[in-house]
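Entry type: protein chain
Record version: 2
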Amino acid sequence: MSAPTELAPGTWTIDPTHSSVGFTVKHLMISKVRGSFANFSGTVIVPEDRFASTVAVTIEPASVSTGDANRDGHLRTGDFFDAENNPTWTFTSTGIRADGDDYKLAGELTMRGVTKPVELNVDFEGVSKDLYGNTKAGFTAEAEVSRKEWGMEYNAALETGGVVISDKVKLTLDIQLAKSA
């Protein structure tokens, strides 16, 4: 694994063409449903002390896609994302620290008007130049959150026990940054 010291100071922006923001949730307690968001953006400001870097990400929940139009429509409603009244979600970092060979990114995640602390497990994938000479950096970040903490409590009990949708949701961000300044 590369060290984040390879990340040059300056402003880096998310390259949405080469990045993804998604989630996984259990359905009927026996399988996983995956979804992603088409519209997101973000900036990373890197000072000389890389551990003082700041991260700001915005996601548009109405851009959700799970491969099923009916489910996507339901996710946009007040039962889940309430995208009409909450058109953006934000993540703002509050700190970065080393964790063995990996990193922890702490921050405040705001969804549905509710802000809660979240800690992401981060793998720094390295820095490279693309075919046009632009400097790029790659990261993978994951966290598990409770959807109920953000007011997404919709569910139904199963006759066999359990519930239709798990409370725990795994967030996964595969991010390529482009150095912009």
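Comment: DSSP finds one helix and eleven strands in the chain.
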